[in-house]
Structure formats: C-alpha cells, structure tokens
Amino acid sequence: MSLDPVLAHIDSDLSAATERLMELLRIPSISTDPAYKGDCQTAADWLVADLNSIGIKAEKRVTPGHPMVVGHVEGEGPHLLFYGHYDVQPVDPLNLWDRDPFDPAIEDTAKGKVIRGRGTADDKGQLMTFVEACRAWKKVNGTLPCKITFFFEGEEESGSPSLVPFMKDHAEELKADIALICDTGLFGEETPAIVTTLRGMMSDEITITGPTRDLHSGMYGGIAMNPIRVLSKVLAALHDDEGRITVPDFYEGVPEIAPEIMAQWEALGFDETAFLGEVGLSKPAGEQDRSGLEMIWSRPTCEVNGIWGGYTGTGFKTVLPSEAHAKISFRLVGQQDPHKIRENFRKFVSDLLPEDVKVTFKTHGASFASQMETSDPIFEKARLALSDEWPREAAYVGSGGSIPIAGHFKKILDMDSMLIGFGKDDDGLHSPNEKYDLNSFHSGIRSWARVLDALTR
Amino acid sequence: MSLDPVLAHIDSDLSAATERLMELLRIPSISTDPAYKGDCQTAADWLVADLNSIGIKAEKRVTPGHPMVVGHVEGEGPHLLFYGHYDVQPVDPLNLWDRDPFDPAIEDTAKGKVIRGRGTADDKGQLMTFVEACRAWKKVNGTLPCKITFFFEGEEESGSPSLVPFMKDHAEELKADIALICDTGLFGEETPAIVTTLRGMMSDEITITGPTRDLHSGMYGGIAMNPIRVLSKVLAALHDDEGRITVPDFYEGVPEIAPEIMAQWEALGFDETAFLGEVGLSKPAGEQDRSGLEMIWSRPTCEVNGIWGGYTGTGFKTVLPSEAHAKISFRLVGQQDPHKIRENFRKFVSDLLPEDVKVTFKTHGASFASQMETSDPIFEKARLALSDEWPREAAYVGSGGSIPIAGHFKKILDMDSMLIGFGKDDDGLHSPNEKYDLNSFHSGIRSWARVLDALTR
C-alpha cells in the first residue's frame, strides 16, 4: 500500500470532500439546548450513513442523551480508535454573525480561503479530516491499513453526561491500542502540534437569592439586600490583586513544569503581545508571576462564563431582583481534583454570604487534567509524519482546553490518546463567525493519511 | 355642595368604577419597550375619552415620545392640578406571574379582595381614584368643586424624557395653585399618608469591554481579561463593609433629619423586622449605623438593577465574553446633585479598570430629591380629610421612591405638590403579580372626594 496515490486522490477529491462537510455543517446539532434534540439525531444519522458509504459498519447507539455513533473496520496491525464530536456550541449572540451559522460557505479572506459556519473548526471539520483520509485510503487501496474503531459523541459541548456510562458499558468494544483525537489546533499558522497536556475542568452554576420576590428599589432600596451586590462580592473575591485564585487549597496538585519542557516551550517563540493584541488586549490577566504560555497551558484558571439578574432589557427598570446567577468554570492542571475543588468553591461562596441570603448550586462538568505518554514510539512516528506535511517541524505542546475524553480513555479503557488537530487561534471556537481554514481541512486530511501510513508501515 | 351624597354615590358605583379601571388595565402600555408604542397611544386615547365623558375638556398632546393627556375644567376657588401616569413597568419575568398581567381580575386573598394585574397600583388604579371621585362629584352636584387641570403622562417608567420640555412649553397652561399626585402609598395597612420628602435618582448603564470578540475560555482563559471579572470588582467596590457607598463625594448634600421629624417617624412604630420578613430577609442591608426607616426614606442608596454578560441560556458554554453590562441607580436625598454624582460615578468606574479594558456609559434618568412645603395650611386640611376616611390618623411621611415630577413642578412651574396615595407595601410594584387592594381603590376614591371637599369648603 502506497501513500502517494492516496495523497493525490485527496487533492483531486477536495471539492467533493468539502461539499460532504457542508452537508454535516447544515445540521444545527447544538447539544446544550433541548430545542435541537432532533438535529443531534439527524447529525448522528448522517455520520452513520457516511461511514457506511466507505464500507465501515457503523451504528447509532441510544443513550439517555444524544446518541453515540460507533463504527468498526477490521484489519491487521495496530488497532486505532478515532474520536470526534458531532455536536456544536450555541450560536448566540446571533446578531454578531455575518451569515447564518448553519448556512456554511467558503469565503475568501486576506489570509486565504476559509469554511465559515458553526462547527467548522469545533469539531465537524476536524472530525471529517480523518473520515476523508480513510475514504481516500479505501478508494485507492481497496481496504483500510489497519483495524479502526470510529467513536463519535454528540454531547461534548454540554458536559458529556452519557459518555462515561457508555464507555463503561462498551469497554470491550471500544478498547484499542491508542485513541486518535482530532479536536485541537496547530501551533501558530504552520507548526503542526501533538498536544501532550490537557487541562481538566470543574464547572458550576450559582443562584443567589435575596428577597423572596422582585422588589421596587424605591420602596426597598437600601434596606433589602440586593443579590447582585452579593454575587459581585463573591465573584470579585475569586481572584486576588495578583491574579491568583483564592478558593482555599485550589493550587493543591498543581505541578511546576519540568525545566526541559519549559525550555522547549520557550523555543516555540510564543508572542503573548501578538496573541493578546489579536483580540484587542495587551496585559496578561492571570497570575502576574507567570508567563503567558504558562497561563494558557499549565496554570489553572477561573472564569465567569455567564452572569445575569434583574432587568436586562431596553430602557431602565428600578427593580431590586430576588435572584442573581452566574456560570463559573475552573480549568485544572496536574493532579487537581475537580470534586474537591467543587466542594471548596461552594464552601468559599457560602462563607461570603450575609446570613439571610441563600445560594443554590447546579453541577455541570468535572474532569481531571491529562498528561500523555509521549515515550511510546508511535508519538515520534506521528510527529515525523506531520512534519512531512507542514512547512515547519511538528511540536509537542500543552493545551489550555479541556478534552475530558482523553482522561476517560485512560481511566476507563486504560488507553492512551494522541491529540492531533489543525485548528488555528483565530478560528473563533464558541464565538460568532467560527471558521476553519480550507487549508486546515485539506492538509488535515493529508496529515491523517500520512499518520495512518506511519503508524502501520 | 354636600359631601355625603358624593360618598354614597361612590359606594353604589364601585362595581362600574372597577370595570372602567379594568378596561384601562387591559391596555399593555409599557413605556420603556418600543414594541408597546401603539398601546401607549391607546391608553392615552382611553383617558381622553373617559375625561370627556365626565364633561372635562381633554386632549392627547403629541411629544417626541409617548403622548401627554391634558384636561381642564373651569370653576371657582383654588386651582388644582392632578397628575398621574398611564404607562406601566415591563412584566418580565413573565413565568413568575400567576395570570396574564394584562388580563386583570378581582381575586379573593387572605387579606381581602385585590385587583391583580400590571399597573393596578402603579399607577392606573391610583390615577383612577381621583378621576372616579370627580365623576361622582359631577354626577351628584352637576359640576366640579373648583378649577381642575388633569395632567397624565406616559413615560414615567422610562425616565420621562418628554416631560420637562413639555412643561416648559406649556407652563402657563399647567400652572395651578398646587399639584395633587397619586403615586404613593399608605403607611402600613391603615394609616393614610402625605409624603413630604422624595428621593431623587441618577441611573446609568455601563458596558465593560475586554477582548474584541467572545473567546473560548480553553484557549484564552487565564491570559485574557474577562469583563465579567472586571464588572464584579467594580460593583463590589460600590459599597464598603459597613454598607456605605464609596463613590467619592457621594454624601455631599445629604442632610441629617431634624430631631422633631425623627421623633415623629419613631412614633410611627416602623417594624423593620416585619418589613424585611415579609420578603424573606432579616438584616437591614444599608449603612449599619442607620435605622431601617432612615435607609428607605432619608438615606441615599445604590442598587444594581440589572446585570448580564456571557452565556445565560440552558446548559453551559465555556465562553470568555467580550462584554459585560449593568444597570445601576442611585436614590438621592437632600441637596445631592445627580449630575455631579453621575460624573463622580463614571470616574470611579473608569479608575478601577485595567489599562486595556474599556467602559462605555449610557445615560438614563437624573432628578433631585424634593421636600414639600407642609407649612401651607392646605396640607393640614388634606391630612384631616384623610383621617376622616381611614381607621387611623393620617401621617406626614418620607418616601424612598423617586417621583421626579414633584421636583419639576417646583422648579419649572414654581408649584408645590401634595403626594397622597393608597398603595400598600405588598402591592408588588414593578414585580410579578402586582395588585391593588379593592379597598385602596374604594377608600381612595372616597378619600379624594373628602380632600376635594376640604380644600374647597
């Protein structure tokens, strides 16, 4: 089996591959919003049909939430599992999109052609790079190069509630030699990257209740405690003046990065001024005694992802509201325990409340950080294959994101993961006008063909 | 002209009067929301027609915003102006209403019959107490007891942008010997009250912008400044631990209440535990060295009336938002200058921002506090007339609310105001399930008949 004809076929088939991706992108599979439940089913059906069309036996599997898609193809050599997710983020604020998020198109930009639309980069476009590499390989060689399991979920953007139970129930079916995950990015514009550390996450929602009903601030203002005032005090207390997070014992289990890794990171020439400048900022907001790269890769964080309370419409309403709310997430590193941190966070909040103000918490996600086994020689094989495709040599990098699946593969299936992806910093993940460079898609497909070749040669 | 037959007619006509009020309540005249512009016109038309039906020459007057309604009836004796507003507050959160806010009904409650619906107490029900008193007087006596000008506005709940220009343009037409304003409440359940101090108000909206677009907190969390974090710091800094407001020079012009007034207030037996307990609270939230009555009547306040930013929908979205917003109002007393306070507040906010975070402000209302001229003997006449109607003697009281109209009458028309109203603490002004006691409506109508009699005898 030979690589060059596969790469040539990928090149000649690019426009058809792009059209297939467009079909998937048009399905608004927003997992966090119950209104799109049917669309998540449709996206899963689409993937089953597409895998079947390549000769992969695939099925939609029922869960209490959105379905899984599982496919198998037999073969010799290593057994690979490929993971991706077909669900996408919500699209609000919709008025900031320049086009319908679910009517994707190829656009010309100053930096080249991009595919614009929700899910292009996170994660439908990335997922399809692997599927298209398999399609080309099959077309050229009549068979795939090894045994491959395909595993797609539809709840990645909403805390993956069904994932762990499903993996436990299907451990034997899903266990492979290594998992390939395509949900990360390049380093900068041209450096392919294998992510070797991933942050974990703890997310929680708090509701602070003051008076039992909304009040008129003319009648009660001054004497009745305003829950927004209390919430502000709580949120303001989460960071000290040096950017450190103040939840007790929060930094327990946070490791210092080994000097040799730190030296490799420094060699990458991360330009924090340019990184922040691209989004209109200039001053790193995290722990003031840490570098920008540490802030985004190796240090834990605390962000308020949403806040609301009182009157938020047009005009003015002098209400003193009964409730105020916030969604808060912590990115975790090293051995930080999300469950212990949730407990400490909740106690921290409760301790700050005036005696007659109440708080309730709603549990969202919890996942540990991960560290990959780069000593396995297949990592170096993959790194060299990626270096062949892209202008610069591939790097082992950290990631600020939380891809809990890698931790679950390790913990439940005792399976290591290799995270390879082709996103760029300006893709606008989770934001309006999300895009995926057409070159990320094209070279991404070629990259997977090269990796499949390298791992099975 | 005799009072008793008028009171008897009011009693026998109560059910028809209630039905008239219901008609007005069914018109959703929410002034702050442009979607209800046509309904504000409809409410004004309804009032014009109703005044005309009593023989009062009334007209709708165009303004750049919602129309004014002005009516005149000639007569001997003092010239009175009656002011009310036909616009109402928004109704959200709609899910907390037990019925359609604009489908009013009489409901039986443990405390007696109430009229339930938006605007029942603020201010349509109150406004109609005076109109119904006039209707009864006219019916019984064939004529009203004195010269009366009726002046209804439709922008009271949205900062009254057209009011001052309209009053300046029509000063001669509107000037009377005294203004009667029905937009306040009883003291407790049974004590009629004439409000002699009103708080002023300064309201502002702030938008804090961090990054130029919404970001993925996995990629940017930790390094990019989150505007919700900044907003929380700003709002948390507005009060110190003792409940004092920290905006520089904020307390300039705040007077101490005269000992004799304070003694009278103490005699009212305000039960702050019961007042707070009714809304599920126990601890006064204002300046800790002040009494509860001072907090709501004579001390200035700062309340956040609305806050929003990031993802506020179902589920979770790990966004690091570009913007965070808050609506903030200050209730003012004595000689506090709303314009100076706006300036100091904005500087206070700006000074707290990190260098690369921006803030923009949107101006809402500004009004000075008012102090009524109770030495005018008509105040004592009215107080005695009210005492005749209700179980307890009428009191001169303070008010936490801001009724800027009284200040405008004084400043523009050099006309004093007398504030008499029949609302109760549990009416739920600006809240879901707003109500007006049927007895407030009935005895309110009777009260105005008595006041008209007392002022013109």
Automatic annotation (TrEMBL), chains A, B:
A family per Pfam: M20_dimer
GO molecular function, one term: metal ion binding
Domain called Peptidase M20 dimerisation: residue spans: 197-356
Gene Ontology terms describing biological process: proteolysis
Coiled-coil intervals, chain numbering: none
SUPFAM superfamilies noted in UniProt: Zn-dependent exopeptidases
Keyword annotations from UniProtKB, A to Z: Hydrolase, Metal-binding, Protease
Domain of life, source organism: Bacteria
Protein name: M20/M25/M40 family metallo-hydrolase
Source organism of this protein record: Pseudooceanicola albus
